[in-house]
Amino acid sequence: MLGKTIDQLHVGDTAQFSKTVSETDVYLFAGVSGDFNPAHINEQYASGTFFGKRIAHGLLSASFLSAVLANQLPGPGAIFLSLSVRFQAPVFIGDTITARAEVAQVDSAKHRVTMNLICINQDEKQVLEGEAVLSPPKG
Q1: How far is CA 99 from its chain centroid?
Q2: Which residue of 2, 4, 73, 99 has the smallest Cβ count within 10 Å?
Q3: Class of domain 6-135
């Protein structure tokens, strides 16, 4: 099953995905990415930072956007062409992050869709914003 084609996408279409970040998620992401920054995996080190405790990898939160785009909107078969993100606040273990994507522009001639992206935590605080350009699946 493929996601929405360029003709099925409209400015304002939205989708979202939520996940609570666990300690296991942080360790697995460190292992997969190779990012063993002590701010993520060492509680003693992290307690001395200005965050006061461990933070999740920023790209872990950004990867939740991939879940929205790959599984929902445009969905299966869509290919990333570019991704730009700005991290705005830390994500801590135990935070529930909701990744939201909204169609901002549909370019039928180039077969591209531009998506506005945000991630918010359980307190509705925005932790990330960005933009992605994708090629939706062909029908």
Answers
A1: 6
A2: 2
A3: alpha beta
Walk along the chain (139 residues) and give the pLDDT tens digit of each residue: 789 999 999 999 999 999 999 999 999 999 999 999 999 999 999 999 999 999 999 999 999 999 999 999 999 999 999 999 999 999 999 999 999 999 999 999 999 999 999 999 999 999 999 999 999 999 7
- Inter-residue contact 80 to 131 (CB < 8 Å): no
CA–CA gap between residue 127 and residue 53 (Å, rounded): 17
What is the full DSSP assignment across the chain?
A: -----GGG--TT-EEEEEEE--HHHHHHHHHHH----HHHH-HHHHHTSTTSS-B--HHHHHHHHHHHHHHTSS-TT-EEEEEEEEE-S--BTT-EEEEEEEEEEEETTTTEEEEEEEEE-TTS-EEEEEEEEEEPPP-
Please state the pTM of the whole predicted model.
0.93
